[in-house]
């Protein structure tokens, strides 16, 4: 239990840290991307404003007469476009006519892009949009003119590469930080759960000590009551005393079983044994009960299934599940027990007909002292003996956990319940 609590603490803590890290990384990446794109659009806007001014018109490179249907002379030497000279290598534009025909392509002659590359990029941009991103690497801005539309483009690959590099750097730094935090949480978890571990250990020790101490007075009471019964003959009051002593002995035995199971797997002698024989032995003892209660009892226990664990504990597990099934099955109902093997897993299932268990009760069915049907509680006057103490299934769950398995309940909530233990 303490180990599971510690693992849950580590898992929850690391999930919270991981989620916070991912959120911060996402915010930083989105902020940097949006901020970088906004700067790019602002650069395009300023460049477009300067290009539209009479003194800042970008010189045209040589254009092909067969492409645009008109000839144009090669421009004379002119100074670089206004603005940052380095940005001029990354900015280019395409001018479209009213019918969408290409009128001109403007770009720096020393840039890495050719005119054909620019036209391919322009085909992916929508002139109807005011601005946008093409191919993840090119920002564009649309401007309406008297002759048509001009699309201004900015090569965004430098900023995109920087943002991606920053993302990888933050990711690497974050993962390294999470790893060191994991080591710190791993160390601190021992210290944080130590008070809980000490409390549970004291609780288990108290239950064990109290149970042992109660056995002596109960033995004396039982012996004295039997002596009085022999002297006085049949007496209902002595009968009630003996009955309650038997109940207390059962409760003490169950509490001791829980204390033993809580000590962990090391408290059980783990050996290889015949699981089929152990389950059959426990199941056969219920045949007389099925006959007396006129219930249908089915057993499907193939031979030759072996298991690593404590044979006595597994017998107790099968007995608890069958006792619970007979106790809560309906009148003249059906109880069935089956054992199967698939790979390294052994599955023990016990099914009974009856009113079933609701979905809400299934969440608590393996908790200690939990009873799904309060009306079946034992009465102090000796009536209502069909009930238990709410410890049987808790002991069963502890046995399964001590063997590294899992136990579950499935019920339609109306007519049938199945409890399955996988070892």
Topology:
Layout lengths: L1 H51 L12 H4 L16 H4 L2 E6 L5 E5 L8 H10 L6 E4 L3 E7 L4 E7 L1 H76 L3 H27 L8 E4 H10 L2 H6 L3 E5 L5 E4 L1 H18 L5 E9 L2 E9 L5 H4 L29 H11 L3 E6 L4 E7 L1
Parallel strand pairs: 7-9
Antiparallel strand pairs: 1-2, 1-5, 3-4, 4-5, 6-8, 9-10, 10-12, 11-12
Helix pairs in contact: 1-5, 5-6, 6-11, 7-9, 9-11
Low-confidence stretches: 58-86, 374-386
**Structure classification:** alpha+beta
Following the backbone from N to C, one meets helices and strands in this order, namely HHHEEHEEEHHEHHEEHEEHHEE
Q: Roughly how many Å is the radius of gyration? A: 41 Å
Query: How many individual helices?
Result: 11
Q: What shape does the CA trace take?
A: elongated
Helix content bin: 40-55%
Q: How much strand?
A: 15-25%
Q: Main sheet: which strands, in order across?
A: 2-1-5-4-3
Largest sheet: 5 strands, antiparallel
What do these coordinates show?
One of its GO terms (biological process) is cellular response to phosphate starvation. Residues 54-73 have a biased composition (Basic and acidic residues). This is histidine kinase. Residues 54-84 are annotated as: Disordered. Keywords: Kinase, Membrane, Phosphoprotein, Transferase, Transmembrane, Transmembrane helix, Two-component regulatory system. Helices cover 52% and strands 17% of the residues. The protein is elongated. A hairpin with a 4-residue loop joins strand 4 and strand 5. 21% of the residues are buried. It has eleven helices and twelve strands. Helix 5 (157-232) runs antiparallel to helix 6 (236-262) and helix 9 runs antiparallel to helix 11 (392-402). Strands 2-1-5-4-3 form a five-stranded antiparallel β-sheet, with helices on both faces. With 423 residues, the chain is of the alpha+beta class.
């Amino acid at each position: 239990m303490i180990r599971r609590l510690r693992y849950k603490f580590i898992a929850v803590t690391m999930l919270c840290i991981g989620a916070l890290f991912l959120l911060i990384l996402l915010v930083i990446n989105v902020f940097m991307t949006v901020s970088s794109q906004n700067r790019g659009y602002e650069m395009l806007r300023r460049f477009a404003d300067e290009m539209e001014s009479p003194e800042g018109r970008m010189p045209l490179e040589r254009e092909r007469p067969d492409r645009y249907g008109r000839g144009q002379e090669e421009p004379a030497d002119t100074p670089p476009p206004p603005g940052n000279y380095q940005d001029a290598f990354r900015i280019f534009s395409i001018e479209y006519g009213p019918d969408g025909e290409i009128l001109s392509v403007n770009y720096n002659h020393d840039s890495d892009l050719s005119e054909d590359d620019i036209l391919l990029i322009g085909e992916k941009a929508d002139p109807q949009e005011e601005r946008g991103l093409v191919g993840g690497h090119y920002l564009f801005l649309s401007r309406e003119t008297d002759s048509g539309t001009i699309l201004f483009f900015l090569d965004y690959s430098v900023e995109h590469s920087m943002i991606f590099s920053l993302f990888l750097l933050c990711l690497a730094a974050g993962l390294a930080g999470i790893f060191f935090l994991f080591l710190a949480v791993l160390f601190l978890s021992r210290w944080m759960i130590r008070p809980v571990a000490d409390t549970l250990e004291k609780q288990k020790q108290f239950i064990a000590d109290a149970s042992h101490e109660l056995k002596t007075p109960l033995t004396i009471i039982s012996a004295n009551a039997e002596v009085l019964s022999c002297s006085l003959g049949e007496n209902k009051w002595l009968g009630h005393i003996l009955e309650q002593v038997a109940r207390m002995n059962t409760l003490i035995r169950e509490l001791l079983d829980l204390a033993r199971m809580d000590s962990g797997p090391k408290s059980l002698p783990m050996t290889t044994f015949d699981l089929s024989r152990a389950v059959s032995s426990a199941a056969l003892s219920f045949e007389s009960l099925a006959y007396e209660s006129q219930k249908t009892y089915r057993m499907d226990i193939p031979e030759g299934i072996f298991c690593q664990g404590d044979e006595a504990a597994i017998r107790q597990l099968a007995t608890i599940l069958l006792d619970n099934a007979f106790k809560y099955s309906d009148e003249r109902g059906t109880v069935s027990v089956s054992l199967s093997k698939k790979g390294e897993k052994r599955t023990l299932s016990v099914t009974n007909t009856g009113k079933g268990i609701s979905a809400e009760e299934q969440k608590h069915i393996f908790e200690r002292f939990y009873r799904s049907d309060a009306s079946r509680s034992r009465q102090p006057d000796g009536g209502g003996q069909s009930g238990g103490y709410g410890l049987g299934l808790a002991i069963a769950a502890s046995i399964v956990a001590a063997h590294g398995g899992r136990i579950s309940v499935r019920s339609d909530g109306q007519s049938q319940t199945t409890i399955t233990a996988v070892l």
